[in-house]
Amino acid sequence: MPKRLMIVLCVAALAVAACHSSSSTTPTPSFSPGSPAPNPSITAAHVLVTINGAPKSKVPVQESTPKSTSSPRPGKPFETLATNHNGKVKFTDLKPAKTYCWVAILPTGKSFECADWEVWQSTLITLGT
Question: How far apart are CA 66 and CA 89, in angstroms?
Answer without folding.
Answer: 20
